[in-house]
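Researcher: Quick sanity check before group meeting.
Model: Go ahead. Protein one:
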Amino acid sequence: MRTYFLLLPVLAFLFVTSCDSDYRPMSIGGVDEVVVVMDSTMWDSETAMAIEETFGKGIETLPGYEPTYRLIFRDFSTNSQLDDLRQYKNLIFASPIDDGTNVANLIQAILSEEIEQRVRDGESFAFPMQDRWMRDQWILLLTSTGDDELAEKIMNSEQALVGNLLDREFERREREVFRRGEQVAISDTLWENYGWQVRMQHDYVWTIREDNAAVFRRYLPDNDRWIMAWWKDGVEDVDFIDRDWINATRDSLLELYIQGEREGSYITTEYRRPVNTREIERNDRIVGLETLGTWTMTNDFMGGPFVNFVYHDPETERLFLIEYGQFAPSVAKRRFVRQFRAMGRTFESDSTWTSEIQEPLTQFLIPNE
């Protein structure tokens, strides 16, 4: 029988409040850490290994090893210990449905009889919930009829399971990036003069402006970041867009706009490491592709991560390429790559766009460094 990843909210005992009237405490713990609640006898089980190999596996598109999420395995034997666990931001409760442990009993108490029967019939096994006990909380219940069966279902549903938490993290990262302020004037000017925009963090500087390209830089001694944007009108058919076209186009633009300090040096893709492209699910007309990988500097010993977005607006027949990159040799990259991924998802295109530029943009420019 086919297994389904159930994305419907669990109804039994679900405490729902509006954002304006939710006075519960904020959840604790890091955005990129997950507390995995399992009976301690199962910490070496197939289910635990499956969680490690999905939520905890290394990110292959970063220059060095960093796990997708930092996992913390915990158990509980008292109500007080469970109350402590209920405070955390990201929680996974995992257990076979009938193994009689405290974790299994908790899962049964949360699930309705109807959903519990679907678990026993092999139809469902994963149940995400939001803000059940605390504000800004993500919870995932994982259960099946046995350890091997649950592990197999977790492995077979990796993209959906991890993607569900990533989507929540992008929302959190967007708030994190812009909590100290944002440059609304730059976003508004992009919208008015070029017919597109992304939200712009407070300390990026507009360094290059052309009719169909722009570069923004955030210069810090130990954490240099940039945004490169390019766009093209009159693109009706996008059948030519594939992984090879994206990377070839990126490389040609990087050579032109993101150059190194040494003569003849510029950024290009590091093809000896994985470069992954996936479609982005959006709730509007825009078609989006996201590419993750690492870059290297020609004629120099430098490298770092990048996040690239390709968007197509079928209404205006416009094509956009926006890339975020970073050079920070002594800084962990996962947090910033997730910020890039959240920032790039703020892209919008004006469906009423005409190509007439409204006003000069020199007030935002500084000399290219």
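Researcher: Fine. The other one?
Model: Protein two, sequence then structure:
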Amino acid sequence: MRAPLSVCLLARDEAERLERCLDALDFADEIVVVVDDRSRDATEEVARRRASRVERRTYAGDVEQKRYCVSLAKHDWVLVVDPDEVVSEGLAASIRDVLERAGRRAGERRTEGSTDVVAWELDRITWHLGRWIRHGDFHPDWKLRLFRRSRARFVGRDPHGRVEVDGPVGRLSGELLHYSYRDLGDQIARIQFFSDQAAAALVREGRPFRLRDLVLRPPARFLRSYLLKRGFRDGLPGFVIAGASAFYVFLKYAKHWEATRPRDEGPGD
């Protein structure tokens, strides 16, 4: 019997990885996929073969897109995953267990001060550069992805919004397998995209550019990832990841400067 759970995904040009993601979600009663209308591969076709509901929608920012996807769910318990993530068997068993226990308590009368857990964090582990990364900026990487939507909302700044809940949060055993990057080139391309989004959000919020952000934050991010969070224990991949993280921070603030600096007229104008 499938769990009374709605799984929500956003997808764009993810046909290659989406099928593997959906294969691991057979335990859920409903799968909702919102396809970015900029998608140009077979993402929508794959989703329509496997999902319960598929909507094609103009991209409105990560936070708003996820709000919309969750609004389509028919169950109160919602699991949000990305196409490049796979729910491991151990994690699936943990999810089924907590939903069964929640279901058994559903008929009981709850007091106003009930301490029932309303959301769960998942232990995400990333495969990159030929190994599972267990240190640095990539791990530990607890993500709040399973929640009661009646007690939760998406907040924050694009492209990295978060789920905010009204009630206790627990942590599940089992791992959410994250196949984030195809290679280093793919990671750099993502850094370009996400730094664009982050810089645009700073501009929208009216945040003034500060030189110290551009000068100090990138090396601070490298030191945090490589030394403080022990990225060195992942060998050379840990060093590369720390450098890429610092590069993302550098680009975010460099693009913020570029977007807010006075525009000079061209030669001869």
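Researcher: One line on it for the slide.
Model: Residues 3-178 form a domain with the Spore Coat Polysaccharide Biosynthesis Protein SpsA; Chain A fold (CATH 3.90.550.10).
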